[in-house]
Amino acid sequence: MTAVIEARGLAKKYGSTQALAGVDLNVQAGRVVGLIGPNGSGKTTAIKSILGLTSFDGSLKVLGLDPRTQRDDLMKEVCFIADVAVLPRWMKVSQAVEFVAGVHPRFDRARAEEFLAKTDIKKDSRVRQLSKGMVTQLHLALILAIDAKLLVLDEPTLGLDLLFRRSFYDNLLNDYMNKERTILVTTHQVEEIENILTDVIFIEHGKIRLDAAMETLAERFTQLTPAPGNTEKARALRPFWEREIFGRSTMLFDGADVATLDALGETRAPSVADLFVAMMQPVSAPAAPSKEAA
Amino acid sequence: MNTYLMLIRREFWEHRSLWIAPLVWVGIIVIMSTWGTFQLERDNDFGEFANAQNIEQLQDLSDAKREEIERAMSYDNDRKQTIYAFSYLVIGALITGFMCIVVFFYLIDCLFTERRDRSILFWKSMPVSDAQVVLSKFLTAMVVVPLGVILLSGATQLLLLGIWNLRFAGSVVGMMTPDWDMMSWVRSMVIESGMMLGGLMWYAPIAAYFLLLSVTVKRMVFLWAVLPLIAAPLLEFIFLRSRHVTEFLGQRFVGYVELLHIDHANMRMSHVNADMPRVQDLYDSFQMSGIFTSLETWIGMAAAAALLFAAIRIRRFRDDS
């Protein structure tokens, strides 16, 4: 099976800053992949490389095409939303639909209009007259009506309120996703998308820290809150992260035996947000007690 | 082809000044001309002629003046047509000159704005190549707008002609003006179109240079477009005491007029000149073949192609996100 995205040793430097340092990626069709990292971690550079928007070193194929040399063909199969601010502000809603219908061979105008009809967006409004949420809805209506194989979303819900964010992802899953389509999404709001992801990739300082299917996370990682008196025993099992709050420790283990951990306290599968924080701030020693705990 | 049509439509959506400004300008020309035509008073010769129904009504007319008017009235239609032909060309020149200003601002702005407001990411999310985008902007400026200007110019000429005829019907001025001649008007339109085509070819490298600036500079694009043209000759003269840049720029900006080889003898315009040119002479005074056969024109075209290629490559490979 051909990977939708296949990268080997993907690297990119901005001056002396190494934005990507030999990234390997393999994204299969039908997956919803979250590319998650702190600011400056290299996720936007990775996405720009995938979209052929910037130069890079290493090997990268997207849908079997080289984004450097075959970008024009690639964009027939790929859609992307960079963030809510990029729709031209002078453009009317009707013009946006007209334009995409005029240049995109895979655009279904009726579908876009059907989606827009469910919103409060007026056809003769200009983008600058719309709220941020409406601009996102418009952009989404345009994108959802394109029969693309890969959808790339870079912080698509930045600056939107919770209702719009929830609605955005609901629409995405209900109206876009199927077995042949793939979504690659970056966001800071990890907790809001973890339920829709099939795979998660953590990136930091231009390197991949974690690349795993969501269903394997619960098998691999365990969160333990040791019972009083078991904390030292738990530490002996070498958690890769520990946090102390209200006088009680919480630890994360990678690949530890769950039965052993169960015997030491309360265990559960960590959330993606917990894992992300743990991996980005690997604290092996107990954190300083909080004021409340003191 | 459909993609190009849509891209060009998009240009007119975004840069509404491309069609609004020429229409406003034509509106001003028509209003001013009409106002002037109907407000002619008797305090000058022409006003007096326009308000008199026949030459007998003209008072205090010297014999010499009377003779000149009678001669102008007696010209055959072929000579009288020169008046209209010249008017057509002046109207065309007024609208074309204004178009140059509008197109200048369009060219320096069209690839700059998309980077400033980050909408370039939206445009780049569409299956449209950078070559198509850059060429559509060049075509808009150098083909579509000029075509519109030719049509607008023709329509304005006919409109003003109708207004003038309405105003001067039955007056002494009316007797000096010719009958409507479709062929003369068509001929002037052909000459105007030829001059436009030659001008577009001659100035293509300048247009491409402005596009290149638009895709390159990060801010103050107007200054980047204008300042080097002023500063470079000045600096050359101050430091090198030479004028090569001035000569080069001068040749590139006005060399087109030289290549037209206009016979200015035929351009003298007076209703009362004994040697009033025939309309054919006026048209023959434009020798446009020089533009199309000039090596400089074709070197300029090659330079335009190179500059456009550079603009396409920069838009394709520069990280504007």
List keywords for this structure.
heterodimer, A: 294 residues, alpha/beta, Rossmann fold, 6-stranded mixed sheet, 4-stranded antiparallel sheet, 13 strands, 28% strand, B: 321 residues, mainly alpha, 15 helices, 0% strand
List the helices and strands and how they pair.
The complex is a heterodimer of chains A (294) and B (321).
Chain A: E1 5-14, E2 17-27, E3 32-36, H1 43-50, E4 57-62, H2 71-74, E5 78-81, H3 93-103, H4 109-117, H5 132-144, E6 150-154, H6 162-175, E7 182-186, H7 190-193, E8 199-204, E9 207-213, H8 214-220, E10 221-226, H9 231-236, E11 241-245, E12 248-254, H10 258-262, E13 265-268, H11 272-280
Parallel strand pairs in A: 3-7, 3-8, 5-6, 6-7
Antiparallel strand pairs in A: 1-2, 1-4, 8-9, 10-12, 10-13, 11-12
Helix pairs in contact in A: 4-5, 5-6
Chain B: H1 2-14, H2 17-38, H3 45-51, H4 63-74, H5 77-110, H6 113-116, H7 120-123, H8 130-168, H9 172-176, H10 182-216, H11 221-240, H12 244-260, H13 279-284, H14 289-293, H15 295-317
Helix pairs in contact in B: 1-8, 2-5, 2-8, 5-8, 5-10, 8-10, 8-15, 10-12, 10-15, 11-12
Description:
The complex is a heterodimer of chains A (294) and B (321). Chain A has 294 residues and is an alpha/beta fold. Chain A folds into two domains: 201 residues, P-loop containing nucleotide triphosphate hydrolases (Rossmann fold, 3-Layer(aba) Sandwich), CATH 3.40.50.300; 64 residues. Chain A is 31% helix and 28% strand. In chain A, the strands form three sheets. A six-stranded mixed beta sheet of chain A has the order 5-6-7-3-8-9, sandwiched between helices. In chain A, strands 11-12-10-13 form a four-stranded antiparallel beta sheet. In chain A, strands 2-1-4 form a three-stranded antiparallel beta sheet, with helices on one face. Chain A is globular. The C terminus of chain A is likely disordered. Chain B is built from 15 helices and no strands. The interface between A and B is medium-sized, with 30 and 26 residues.
